[in-house]
Amino acid sequence: MVEPWWLPGASAQVAGQGSRGGWVIRHRTSSALLLALPFVLTVGIAAARLITGSMFGLVPLLAVGPAVAAAIGGAVYTLAAGGLAMMICMMFLLCPVADATGRRADMVGLVAVAAVTAAGIAASTVRRRREHELAQVRMVAETAQQVVLRPVPLQLGSVRLAVKYLSASSQARVGGDLYDVVDAAAGVRLVVGDAQGKGLPAVQTAAALLGAFRDAAHEEDSLAAIAARIETSLSRQLPDEGFVTAIFAEISADGSKMELLSCGHPTPLLLGEEEPRFVDPGQGSLPLGLGHLGPEPRIPVTIPLHEHDAVLFYTDGATEARNTAGAFFPLASCASVLDPDAYGTLVERLSRELTRYVGHAPDDDVALLLVYRDQAECPRSAADVA
C-alpha cells in the first residue's frame, strides 16, 4: 500500500498484522476520517457561529482546524485547513453584524487563524524533518541488525529452524541478545546468548562473540573448543567483570541427536510427545568471560531427538518477564508450548502470548530459536493427520 505523503510511516504499521486485507480497509477508513477531522471541525464551528450569531464570539475557535492539521499532516495540508478557516473568517467579516463587538471578535478570529496557520506550517515542517531523520536512524538500526544478527535459514540439512527477536526498545531492533546458526562439517552448530549490560556496549559484545563463533564453528572439532576459542577472543574485548551467558548446540547430520554445552545460560526446553521439560545441562559452568574462575572444564551433554521432538532455545527475557501481578511468565506451561499446533509458527505465537502476558513490550530483550527435525510435526498435528 502506498502511504499518503502527509502520514509518514503509516504503511509500516501494516507489518505483522493478521488478516491484512481487512486491516488495510479499516486503516484507510480511519486515515480518511482523521484527515477530514480539521475540515469537519472548521465547518462545525462555522455552522455554530451562523446559528448563534456573534454574541458568543465563536470565530476565534476556527483556529482549532489548522492546529489539528499541523499535528497530523504536513505544511501543504496545514495551509489548506488554515485557508478554509480564513475564508470563513473573511465571510463573517464581510457580512453585516449587529454591533461593533461582533466585528472585533471576527477580526480577532481572523488574526488568530492566520497566526496558528503560520505557526502550524513551521511546526509541521520541523516535525516532518525529524520524522525523516528518525526513519534514517531506524534504517541504520535495521542494517546493523542484519550485520549482527544475520537472518537464520528456515532449513539446514535435516534441521528446520524458526527464530524471533523481541527488542525491549521500541526504537531499536537489536540489543545484547544474540543467536546464530552455522552449517559446519560436523553438523549444524548454533549459539544463543545474552551479553551483560545494555545499549551499545552489549551490542558490541554480541557482535564480537558472533564473529568469533562464525569462524570457530567451521574450524574447531568440538563445542568445548569453540567455547574456549570464543572466551579467549572475548577476554581481549570484555570490560572487567564483563560476561556473556551462552549455550552452544550441535545437531548430527541425520538430526537424531543434539549435543549441548551451556555457559551459564538458561536451559533449553524440549518439546515432544511427553510434557515439555527443561533439558538437564549436566555439570554447570560459568558464563563466557568468567571461565577462569572455575577450575572444572565445560562438559557437553548429548540428548536424542525423536521424530516429533523440538528444542526451544531462549534468553532470560522470556522466563523473567512479569505480568502486572509480578508473576513470571510460565514458559514451560504456556498455551503456545502446551498446544504447539505447528512447530513452524510456534515462536511467532509464543512471542505474541508473552507480549499479552506482560501487557506491553518486554522490559528485556527476548530471543527465541526453535530447532526441529525436517518433516517432523508436533504430536498434536501428527495425531490430527492420522
Description:
By secondary structure, the protein is α+β, with helices and mostly antiparallel strands. The protein contains 10 helices and 11 strands. Strands 1-2-11-10-7-8 form a 6-stranded antiparallel sheet. It has a 5-stranded antiparallel sheet with strand order 3-4-5-6-9, with helices on one face. A hairpin with a 2-residue loop joins strand 1 and strand 2. Helix 1 runs parallel beside helix 3, helix 3 runs antiparallel to helix 4 and helix 5 crosses helix 6. The radius of gyration is 30 Å and the shape is elongated. The N terminus is likely disordered.
- Range of helix content: 40-55%
Oligomer category: single chain
Q: Please, how many helices?
A: 10
Main sheet attributes: strand count, strand direction, barrel closure: 6 strands, antiparallel
Radius of gyration: 30 Å
Following the backbone from N to C, one meets helices and strands in this order, namely HHHHEEEEHHEEEEEEHHHEH
| Average of pLDDT | 83
* Beta-strand percent range: 15-25%
Number of strands: 11
- Low-pLDDT stretches: 1-20
Distance between the termini: 41 Å
Strand arrangement, largest sheet? 1-2-11-10-7-8
Overall 3D form: elongated
What is the topological layout?
Elements (H helix, E strand, L loop, with lengths): L19 H33 L11 H9 L2 H20 L5 H49 L6 E2 L2 E8 L10 E8 L2 E9 L3 H21 L3 H13 L8 E8 L5 E7 L5 E3 L5 E2 L22 E4 L5 E5 L1 H4 L15 H4 L7 H13 L7 E8 L5 H7 L1
Antiparallel strand pairs: 1-2, 2-11, 3-4, 4-5, 5-6, 6-9, 7-8, 7-10, 10-11
